Amino acid sequence: GEVCNMINKKYSEFLPSMQSAEDLVSQVDGLSSNIDLLRAGIENEVQRDLNVAVAEFTELKQQLERDTLVLSILKKLQEFDTAIKEYNTALLEKKYVAAAQQLEKARSSLKMLESRKGFELKILKALGTELTVQTQNMLYHLGEEWQKLAVWKLPPSKESSSLESVMHSELHLHTVPSKEEEIAGPPVASVLQAFAVLGELHTKLKIFGQLLLKYVLKPLISYPSLQPFTEEQSDVFILRFKSKEANLDHSSPMEVFDKIKLIFEVLHKYLLNVPLEQPVEDKKECRVTLAELLGDVIWEELSDCLIQNCLVNSIPTNSSKLEQYIEVIKSTEEFEKALKNMKFLKGDTTDLLKYARNVNSHFANKKCQDVIVAARNLMTSEIHNTVKITPDSGVALPRLPDPGAGDHLKMQTTSKLLHNDTVNLENETKLSQYTFSLPTCRISSSVEKLMELAYQTLLEATASTDQCCIQLFYSVRNIFQLFYDVVPTYHKENLQKLPQLAAIHHNNCMYIAHHLLTLGHQFRYRLTNILCDGAATFVDLVPGFRRLGMECFLAQMRVQKGEILERLSSARNFSNMDDEENYCAANKAIRQVLHQLKRLGKVWQDVLPVNVYCKAMGTLLNTALSEIVTRIAALEDISAEDADRLYSLCRTMVEEGPQVFTPLPEDDKNKKYQEEVPVYVQKWMMFKELMIILQANLQEIVDQWADGKGPLAAEFSAAEVKSLIRALFQNTERRAAALAKIK
């Protein structure tokens, strides 16, 4: 009990007064000798007579445990106090690492105290507060030092990292060791290591890394004209920028890598080559360098930026340049190696290198995207800028090497592709170029370019790797499917309103269909090996394109027919022509129809192939003649004067109708087609027969009928002829006799 009272007394004195460490030490020594006596007492007495001493032993044992516990608590309090004292001394001497380590010691003593159950000492709270205050104080000092060591001089505008503002950014590193410091190690090391000990380094590096990305690394990637420029003075190292004329929009990856490497080299030399002493528990990783930590913070963002703003632009757009891309891959490997040597990077192949090595796939993707964008631009350009194609320009079959000649094709210029005399389709059969020739007509120049794009892309495909070849082949098929979907919709209104555009679109579709027949064929040796089931063909698209062209043109024809019938409907049914007003209306209707046809004949001239032109104009003229015949044949009464006037209206049609046929710009060449009008106008002869009837007497009509074998019988039925006779002639015996002969 004596000992216990003593400890309690000492303990209660100690707690409020927190005596100096020396007093504690002597108390601890006193206690220690007490404990030794106790231990000796237990051992001697117990061994002398266990049975008697069990009760006493238990009591002594519990007392010993209490004493031991109190002792360990006093020891920890003593350690805490010592650590804080030594921390203060070290901080004054600017021994930052030592100071930080003392703070960490104090922290672990406090942790031990807090973990003791049954001793909720009031003092612990005060000690915790003291520790927090001292830690913040130390971090403040370190922060001040760090700001003196790495100084950013940035332009005032916070937001922009434009070329202008980057030109005014500088980084000053006051970390050039002076002579006397070289032995003790530079202050930068102690500041950074102290941050590390206190667990604050990551935060500091993150902020530094963000500034580095925003004002140094990313601008160097984005602005080809930007050059880093370094200067070492006696006590400071300065990094700033110059701008030189850039000859390209994008700098090559090699140039960018060199600039970035330079930045990392100077950071490594002046700032980051500091080993961090890790706490001893993790024996494995004792030397983590600062560079590694900074690398962890910024590498991902830096590598993304390099891929998006540098490597993507360097992917070649034609396969002949793929060879040279090896350089880029090599320089990417070297860049990574340099960064690894400086410890910025750990681990193997990064995304950056994977991206560069995967150039074939990127090449194919980029190429296909370029092809589709180019095609889309062509499809949305004006239809009415046209070029004339003739049978000899019609063949765009490039010469290809024999199937055995390997895949290395020299790129040919498309103009050469478009003018070959004969095409060697199978090695034996020679086909004349006219086998596949197109009739002379006009097509949109954009469609000719589209076709050239398709050929160039397929040529490129045959010279590419398998994967790329397949992608390019399908993107050519996509071009045509896109045309099928985009053009009719995009140009819909104009195709309905403007007959000339409808004609050009018709030609465009026929031209494409024509080329699709043979397009896969020329490249089949190369493509069939790769595409399953020899699917290297475009033939399946042909009917769709023919239909597309036909439908558009037929829709236009329907519009024109509608207008003709509309105009003729104002001719008062061609009845009572002896009435001046009626005659004028009919005459005007006929003039308008001829005018409409003449105008169409002009806008389709030199655009439609001649045979299509003649069929189209013939069909429309036929519509007009047929309508006039139907109206006149339906009249119940035609006076002599009516007949004369109807005849003169019909004569206008017969004389001027053929003149609307002007398929060619040279007038003298059109005579031939004007003379052939009966071939193209189905009701031409019927119309001529009607005119004869309007002028003839009864006998002449009977002669023209010739017992159902004459020219009149070829065009009109007996009922129609009889109806006309009744309308033209009065009811007499002669008329009755004539009617009897028409049967």
Automatic annotation (TrEMBL):
Location of the Centromere/kinetochore protein zw10 middle domain: 142-379
Membrane topology annotation: Peripheral membrane protein
Keywords linked to the UniProt accession: Acetylation, Cell cycle, Cell division, Centromere, Chromosome, Coiled coil, Cytoplasm, Cytoskeleton, Endoplasmic reticulum, ER-Golgi transport, Kinetochore, Membrane, Mitosis, Phosphoprotein, Protein transport, Transport
Any single GO CC term annotated in Swiss-Prot or TrEMBL for this entry: RZZ complex
ZW10 C-terminal helical domain segment(s): 588-742
Source domain of life: Eukaryota
GO BP annotations, alphabetical order: cell division; endoplasmic reticulum to Golgi vesicle-mediated transport; mitotic spindle assembly checkpoint signaling; protein transport
Localization terms from the record: Chromosome, Centromere, Kinetochore; Cytoplasm, Cytoskeleton, Spindle; Endoplasmic reticulum membrane
Keyword Membrane in annotation: yes
Endoplasmic reticulum keyword on record: yes
Domain (Centromere/kinetochore protein zw10 N-terminal) ranges: 2-84
Positions of the Centromere/kinetochore protein zw10 C-terminal domain: 436-566
Sequence similarity: Belongs to the ZW10 family.
Subunit structure, as described in the record: Interacts with NBAS and KNTC1/ROD; the interactions are mutually exclusive and indicative for its association in two different vesicle tethering complexes. Component of the RZZ complex composed of KNTC1/ROD, ZW10 and ZWILCH. Component of the NRZ complex composed of NBAS, ZW10 and RINT1/TIP20L; NRZ associates with SNAREs STX18, USE1L, BNIP1/SEC20L and SEC22B (the assembly has been described as syntaxin 18 complex). Interacts directly with RINT1/TIP20L bound to BNIP1/SEC20L. Interacts with C19orf25 and ZWINT. Interacts with ZFYVE1.
Annotated protein name in UniProt: Centromere/kinetochore protein zw10 homolog
Gene name as annotated: Zw10
